[in-house]
Amino acid sequence: MTLVSFVVPAFRVQGYLRECLDSILAQPVADIEVIGVDDCSPDGSGDILAEYADRDDRVTAVRLDRNVGLGPARNIGLDRAVGEYVWFVDGDDWLTADCLVEVAARLRETRPDVLIVDHVRAHWDDTATRSAMAEVFPVPPGAVTFRLAERPETVKLLHTAWNRLVRRQFLADTGLRFAPGWYEDVSFSYPTLLAADRIGVLDLVCVNYRQRRAGAITRTRGERHFDVFEQWHRVFRELDRLGAEELRPEIFERMMWHYLVVLGNGDRIGPELRPTFFARVAIEHARFRPAEGHRIPGGVAGLKHRLVAAGRWRTFSALRTASRAGETVRRVAGGTRLRVLPPARLGVRRARDAVLRQYQRTERRRPVEENLAVYAAYWYRGYTCNPAAIYEAARRLAPQVRGVWIVRRDRVHTLPEGVEYVVAGTAAYHRTLARARWLINNVNFPDSVRKRPGTVHVQTHHGTPVKVMGLDQQRYPLGAGGMDFAGLLRRVDRWDFSVTSNSFSTQMWERAYPAGYTTLEVGYPRNDRLVTSTAEDVLRLRAEFDAGLGEQVVLYAPTHREHLPRYRPPFDPERFLDALGPAGLLLMRSHYFHDRDRRPPPVARARVLDVSIRPRVEELYLAADVLITDYSSAMFDYAVLDRPIVIYAPDWDAYRLTRGVYLDIVAEPPGPVARTFTELLDVFRSGALRSPDAEQARARFRERFCALEDGRAAERVVRRVFLGENPV
């Protein structure tokens, strides 16, 4: 018999769902099942569940045709469960490694109706805070079970569904299910404790409770938070039905704690709703107050209780205002104490920069130029990537928009003729940034750029991520390179649009860069050229490298290792040319982080070309017959051409552990995988490059990552961003 059925509801959790499912399926316990319920999610959550169900027979995917809410979605999963116990895990949380081993052992040893496990709050800044478990149970209960009347302090543990496993037959016998509406955990968790004969507590952290920066219900203002009152009404109806009057004081105390938490959270109850919510709390206090009295907490919490009982909203509000003001003073004072001023450095450049920054601030006071768009790419390295493709489409579709590029002084010569530009750091640069209505970049603009009302910032990114990015890098400090994550989030908060090339990228960016932007999942504008180029275009590009029709052109494009900046994968061009044969040409391209100043090892033959200085990588893709790469996003772009791709990953194990990855590119490659240079040579000598297995792998890869690449991505961006349309 299946021991544990995991029910995982999914709604707008595409950025986190894979981590949740992986954490469950990786547990070293065999007798489990996972029932994923797509609650008609508007993002890719349903597709992720279906993907996992296709490749793992322990997973069942249920797709609902309308949104029913978290509680009913859990009920639907419960109805399909066959396990002895049910564990409701939210799709944006994840389990700790190997926790199910101890959970399963405790279940088999004690056979509880309810087993509560410990958790931590996993914050977006990679910090964690413990639960109240140690405070509620200073001495862990151990492998025993009890009724709630025997250990009433149990109600002080967090009342969520995901920190407890419930015996499925117990739920069937009692008829307990989730109610609709927000705060559905309340009317499920407390009644299960009231009805259970055997409650167990396992003081083992099993759940990482994700504290999302954006998109969480607990950070969404609105009237839906008033649902909490009806959920608590259900709890008291169940208390009355079970005749558990002796537990009324504990349940009442917990209810008041919860109401005051919701009322005090400005992310939930806005100022306009706070007086009404307070009035409802006062009514609830009078309605459910135990006749024999109840415990009033000490300090400020007790004062709040008494003010609620007396219905004194103005005093309550003044207390809250004074408390928040005190917190602000303490925070500012603390910041002042910790502040260390840098030593004074006088110099012409510093003074000039200060003057120019002040000039930009002055320019920001002037009106925004309604038809001005500023473009940049790779920290002002030149005219390239997605911004260049959008610029070209805008010139055609929105000619009223004046486009200006920002480039470094040493890259001005790389600009195409007729492209208007400003040099980074000049007065014209500061003026353009301050006055532009649209700002388009494939990286972030500097911190000195301020988001003005009425301006639109478009983040195009520059690749589908294999390695972890953004906030996810906090877990891999070797690859983070001393990143300022708070500063990163300030920059991300400027985004209005995030352009993505596939649903996988959308999911990863949502989790790596949590903010309130709108995702444009339209394909990558720079890849339009790969789709629309003709055979004549390809021949012309190949001719630039003196590559004939019968010559096999191989492009080798490894990625950068932030954690090992001097590392280069072992690659011997001479030996590779021998394996390639007499009709072969090798193009070698370094990562842009190297500023294209590194050259491949010298060779005796002219059939090796360093193409690092070419600004448009799409031209290299079109000219090449084969791509060799490791963990670079180049593979996703090159796959658009449906030509052979070889993954050369000699340091895969170390890279995955130290840098972190979103995708197991060795397990799900777009073609043959070589872990050593000898294996790479064998791929070309043996014909594995174009074997049926390689063709099938590439087809699967293209279906997953290239479905949107139809040659119109730039047009879709222009129509949405500049013209305000919603193109299909």
Automatic annotation (TrEMBL):
Q: Give GO terms: molecular function aspect only.
A: transferase activity
Which residue spans traverse the membrane? none
What InterPro entries does the annotation carry?
Glycerophosphate_synth, Glyco_trans_2-like, Nucleotide-diphossugar_trans, TagF_C, TagF_N, Teichoic_Acid_Biosynth
Keywords of the record, alphabetical order, are:
Cell membrane, Membrane, Teichoic acid biosynthesis, Transferase
Question: Mainly resides where?
Answer: membrane
Q: How is the protein disposed in the membrane?
A: Peripheral membrane protein
Q: Where in the cell is it found?
A: Cell membrane
Domain named Glycosyltransferase 2-like is located at: 5-139
Q: Say yes or no: keyword Secreted present.
A: no
Family the entry assigns: Belongs to the CDP-glycerol glycerophosphotransferase family.
Protein name stated in the entry: Glycosyl transferase
Supply the source organism for this entry: Micromonospora andamanensis
